[in-house]
Design brief:
ABC_transporter-like_CS; 7 helices; 4-stranded antiparallel beta sheet; Rossmann fold; alpha/beta; 10 strands; about 25% strand; 6-stranded mixed beta sheet; about 250 residues; ATP hydrolysis activity
Length: about 250
């Protein structure tokens, strides 16, 4: 089970001079169990702040967050949620396997179980032969796969992603989209992700939330009713992307 709901969420950030910065205003958002929801909007619309609030890294100043139907302040199973950032944040002195294992070590998982789960997850993302490689020995796409494996090894029910593929070239990004969709179905996860790329939103998401900036507020929530897999060059995807651009 994995679901996310925001109800009337607002956020201000203090500034050294002047009034606090109003980042989010009365945001409602629903990511039902096993859904894929994208958040798009101009820079400064609070997209990443929403993910940080869902992850418990930032507290909202107003409104409520519900995780798996439970108010966030009462939510206990934080290990069922993982966060994949824009930068892969791999530790350069650790091998791929050791980077993937990091979250399990912090959670007190025993060595034998860690080894087994890391091997299974590296196989899941297509990196079986690269467990002992260091980050500098891997391509950008392979590093993204390691970062994805690190997010998946704890077997989350909710995966948050903040533009994790934005630095990849289009062909590798398309491969990662296919991998994410495949793994999401295997694991039954709920995905909530931020992107500037409306085509990426259309290719991946069941639903796209469009934010207006300063303060960030929901302008539109659009359902993408296209069958998978979705070809980013198809007329159907191009038309949905055109409509989304018109809302930004």
């Amino acid at each position: 089970m994995g679901s996310v709901q925001l109800r009337g969420v607002s956020k201000w950030f203090p500034r050294r001079e002047g009034e606090p910065l109003h980042v989010l205003q009365n945001v409602d958002l629903d990511a039902p169990e096993r859904s894929i929801v994208a958040i798009v909007g101009a820079s400064g619309s609070g997209k990443s702040t929403i993910l940080n609030i869902v992850a418990g890294l930032v507290r909202p100043d107003a409104g409520e967050v519900y995780l798996n139907g439970v108010p966030a302040e009462a939510f206990k199973d934080w290990r069922s949620m993982t966060y994949m950032f824009q930068d892969d944040r791999l530790l350069p002195w650790r091998t791929a396997a050791q980077n993937v294992s990091f979250g399990l070590e912090a959670g007190g998982v025993g060595r034998a179980e860690r080894r087994e789960r890391v091997a299974e997850t590296l196989e899941l993302v297509g990196l079986t032969g690269f467990a002992d490689a260091y980050p500098h020995e891997l391509s950008g796409g392979m590093r993204s796969r390691v970062a994805l494996a690190r997010s998946l090894v704890t077997r989350p029910s909710i995966l948050l992603m903040d533009e994790p593929f934005s630095k990849l070239d289009p062909s590798i990004r398309a491969q990662m989209h296919e991998e994410v969709l495949r793994i999401k179905e295997l694991m039954g996860m709920t995905l909530l992700f931020v992107t500037h790329d409306v085509e990426e939103a259309v290719v991946l998401a069941h639903k796209v939330v469009v934010l207006n900036p300063r303060p960030g507020r929901v302008r539109e929530t659009r359902t993408i009713d296209l069958p998978y897999p979705r070809d980013p060059l198809s007329p159907e995807v191009a038309e949905q992307a055109r409509l989304l651009r018109g809302s930004l």
